[in-house]
Amino acid sequence: MSRRRRGLGTGAQNFSDERALEQNCTVASKGWFSSPWPALLFIVTAGLIAFSNNTSGEFIYDDFDTIVDNPEIKTFSPLWSPLWITHMTPISGRPVIALTFAVNYAVNGMDVFGYHLVNNIIHLLAGLTLFGIIRATLLLPRFAVKYGDRANGFALAIALLWLIHPLQTEAVDYITQRTETLAGLFYLLTLFLSVKAFTSDSPQRWKFAAVVICGLGMASKEIMVSAPLIVLCYDRLLVTGSFKEALQRRQKFYFALIATWLILGLLQLNAPRGSAVRFDGFGGLDVTPFDYFRTQLEVVVHYLRLAFWPHPLALSYQDLPMLRTFSPQLIMPTMILVSMVSLTLWGFLRGYWWSLLGLWFFAIISPSSSIIPMPYEIATERRMYLPLAAIIVLAVFIVEHFWARFFGALATGQKAMRFGAIGLLVFILPAMGYATWSRNNDYRTAVRIWTDTVKVRPGNFHAWESLGKALVDAGRIEEAIEPFQEAARLKPNNAEIFSNLGSALGQIGRFDEAVAMHRKALELEPDSAIDHYHLGNTFLRANDLDNAVLAFSKSLSLDPNSYSAHGNLGMIFMQKGDFSGAEKHFEKLRSLIPSNVLAYRLLAELRIAQNRREEAVELYREALMIAPEDSEILARLNALTVNRPQ
Fold first, then answer.
1. Residue 612 pLDDT more than 80?
2. Looking at the structure, do residues 477 and 559 belong to the same domain, yes or no?
3. CATH number for position 497
4. Same domain, yes or no, for 573 and 463?
5. Of 516, 561, 563, 96, which is closest to residue 571 (Cα–Cα)?
6. Is residue 500 included in any domain, yes or no?
7. How many CB atoms lie within 10 A of CB 605?
8. Beta-carbon count within 10 A of 397 CB
């Protein structure tokens, strides 16, 4: 059977001669943007403008688990501490991401500017890499004759649309989602370096770099799992024309790429975020893989809509119902996705280049949007960070095709594309850039982003609860009561909501109501250590020390490593004059978090109460070694040494 009949598509060739491949790839881009440098400068400028207002604000949501309350990124003692996060956070099992946050903390502390700046730089680099991939692809022999002189223009349009698309704001503005952007950058770099290896007469250095970057990606996030396969499919569809030839030419290279899966596998041995994948659901409801798959049919189609019309956007979609039966509402989403999958497979078997876009989309989005239940995040817009590129590439070439066809009688294809590109820059890009700039403002404070979320999705109990937490953190506790009550109304079987409502009521002195809410939470989850802890805090605020001791003790019986409960019990015992009981809990607190100065301060105050000033001085000095810029510790130490009895 001839290659034409096998369906490599228009312009397909069988490139068995590496020299011919190299020569074809050197087609110069002439005319508009004849050099790539103006385009690269344009991309950087557009990205800087679109995200210019996102470098201030505050930490939100999972940023507290990732950064604020994560002691393991706040020290390099031992050196590998940031690389091996031992407790469950969004960066557990993702050592490269954790290392970047540790460096950020070492440089910036709790100043959000540095964290946002790094996120923005990563996103800009990803946009530039996407430009490089598109440009290098259009200079391949398969496309060079038709698109080679416009490679820079096409690559610029695609990279800009992807870079400043409003759907990217969650991944860029939400600091913790560096997991998505950095892994995305590694994914794009792996493909870019591989393409350079395919077209270079000195491919070994490019191959080596691609394998190293792929390994770093595997140590960043699980979406990298499909990167080696996408590289192979790119080779088969756009370069060699067959898997057999691709593997024969670059067998060692593909073996090395696939070997990076070992990194990912080793990092997943202890299921670092195992609770994110659950079969008991969110709120105690059973979720089967088929329930989750049915639900994702609608979710993925929703993502596709947002790619073309990114409004309204939402940080949380926890109000989406889990679909447990196949209903009429699934007919249209099923038809859309089955058609997409079928076209992708048919195109791939026939060798059409555009099938690579379908493979890219489904390979990246499938791990989180198929059969693996993730009921804590039924849908989240950041999952479209990389898949969006495939949609934009396809849309740009479809528009180009019809533009040239309908206006070809009035102008040459090149002129038509030039007018189209100008129209894109004049109308679409500014609109998208403004939408992105506006969306950045929503992420500046937790109160603002959750207020926006409940406005867009008023049935979302999780958003109402998160708004209540944000208001509490902002000191607006009276205002937090109503969101917590609305969350409890929407989700009456959720213990955490009642516990948070009780804590808020306790902070404004409504102790009887607060205790009632805590009791309600404990009826729902009697073995919840955190709910007993919150009840203890409410008793502590009410100065009911005996009941506080009972609640904190119960919390510790369920979670012996609760450092907050140890700290509170220690302070109660010290207040009661039980110094030995206080010492036991303060020492335990110090052993749990050696880098936390609070334990040293509490022990020092205990030593002062015991009239053991020399030991208190030594403890403050140890604390000062951990936090040399802590003015309160320094003041206490000076007070002890200056006023030392002679």
1. yes
2. yes
3. 1.25.40.10
4. yes
5. 563
6. yes
7. 18
8. 16
Burial status of residue 120 (CB atoms within 10 A of its CB: 0-12, 13-18, 19 or more): buried
Same-domain pairing of 456 and 352: no
Residue 74 lies in a domain: no
Range of the domain at 326: 273-382
- At residue 78, the pLDDT reads 76
Looking up tokens 């594309």 gives 417
Q: What does the alpha-carbon distance between residue 272 and residue 275 come to, in Å, rounded to a whole number?
A: 8
Residue type, 473: D
Measured at the CA of 244, the angle between CA 239 and CA 246, to 5 degrees, comes to 35
Kind and range of the H or E run holding 363: helix 355-365
Task: Tell me whether residue 353 is in a domain.
Answer: yes
**Rounded-to-integer distance, Cα 468 and Cα 89, Å:** 22
Q: How far apart are CA 619 and CA 21, in angstroms?
A: 69
Angle, helix 331-350 to helix 355-365, in steps of 10 degrees: 130
CA 383 to CA 113: how far, in whole Å?
Answer: 24
How is residue 93 written in tokens?
């099992």
| DSSP-derived secondary structure for 387-450 | HHHHHHHHHHHHHHHHHHHHHTTTS-HHHHHHHHHHHIIIIIHHHHHHHHHHHHHHTTSHHHHH
Confidence check: pLDDT of 43 > 90: yes
Q: Give 462-468's long-range contacts (Cβ < 8 A, gap of 24+).
A: 462/316, 462/318, 462/319, 462/487, 463/314, 463/315, 463/316, 463/318, 463/319, 464/490, 465/491, 465/494, 465/496, 465/497, 465/500, 466/61, 466/316, 468/500, 468/501, 468/504
Backbone angles phi, psi at 353, to 5 degrees: -60, -35
How many CB atoms within 10 Å of residue 124?
A: 19
Residue 10 has pLDDT above 50, yes or no: no
Return the sign of the alpha-carbon dihedral for residues 342, 11, 365, 432: negative
In a domain, 88, yes or no: no
8 A C-beta contact, residue 363 and residue 226? yes
In the numeric block, which tokens belong to residue 379? 């849908």
Alpha-carbon gap, residue 74 to 232, rounded angstroms: 40
Q: Could you read off the pLDDT of 126-184 as tens digits, one per residue?
A: 999 999 999 999 999 999 998 998 899 899 999 999 999 999 999 999 999 999 999 99
Q: Please tell me whether the peptide bond between 387 and the residue prior to it is cis, using omega within 30 degrees of 0.
A: no
